[in-house]
């Protein structure tokens, strides 16, 4: 599902990533851990097509994404990748449901999601699967607790049925109870939909939730920066 070959990325004349080869099979759930500043988020942004490497190839499925133009990378990401950022990036003044429906609109899934009776029905089903009560659907994102916002972020990343979800330190602000709840719900949805999950974090207590755990230093020949 994901493969990297001879990837190098430099910033301000300093090599941040030098990864000769790395591969993730479809449906795997991978935790990539490392210290702050080690290049974890940089790698995730490269996988998402938000940045491009200086050299090498990044393949998602059959597509070498770093060979695409910026516009085509955006389109590919919108259709095939889900992204959960550390700061969530929900639109605070939009309702829970509208935050999810906007993500569906941007990924062009609204018209083609007929298997669930329409994208709105699908959004409501996913919100229910992460145990958000219907009474919250029309509240604005800023009215929710952090744990509730995290669940909305899962649904927003899932709404267009991506092949891969990339998660950047999404549990860093959660207490242990909400962290475990978030991970259980994310893993259940990924498993049910055969979605490949790659999460980067410095928190090794998350390791029990993943089928594969790797240190960034094991694949990055530059080591920590």
UniProtKB/TrEMBL annotation:
<dbReference type="GO" id="GO:0022857">
    <property type="term" value="F:transmembrane transporter activity"/>
</dbReference>
<dbReference type="GO" id="GO:0005886">
    <property type="term" value="C:plasma membrane"/>
</dbReference>
<dbReference type="Pfam" id="PF00005">
    <property type="entry name" value="ABC_tran"/>
</dbReference>
<dbReference type="InterPro" id="IPR003439">
    <property type="entry name" value="ABC_transporter-like_ATP-bd"/>
</dbReference>
<keyword id="KW-0547">Nucleotide-binding</keyword>
<keyword id="KW-0067">ATP-binding</keyword>
<protein>
    <submittedName>
        <fullName>ABC transporter ATP-binding protein</fullName>
    </submittedName>
</protein>
<dbReference type="InterPro" id="IPR003593">
    <property type="entry name" value="AAA+_ATPase"/>
</dbReference>
<dbReference type="InterPro" id="IPR015854">
    <property type="entry name" value="ABC_transpr_LolD-like"/>
</dbReference>
<dbReference type="InterPro" id="IPR025662">
    <property type="entry name" value="Sigma_54_int_dom_ATP-bd_1"/>
</dbReference>
<dbReference type="InterPro" id="IPR027417">
    <property type="entry name" value="P-loop_NTPase"/>
</dbReference>
<dbReference type="GO" id="GO:0005524">
    <property type="term" value="F:ATP binding"/>
</dbReference>
<dbReference type="InterPro" id="IPR017871">
    <property type="entry name" value="ABC_transporter-like_CS"/>
</dbReference>
<feature type="domain" description="ABC transporter">
    <location>
        <begin position="2"/>
        <end position="225"/>
    </location>
</feature>
<dbReference type="GO" id="GO:0016887">
    <property type="term" value="F:ATP hydrolysis activity"/>
</dbReference>
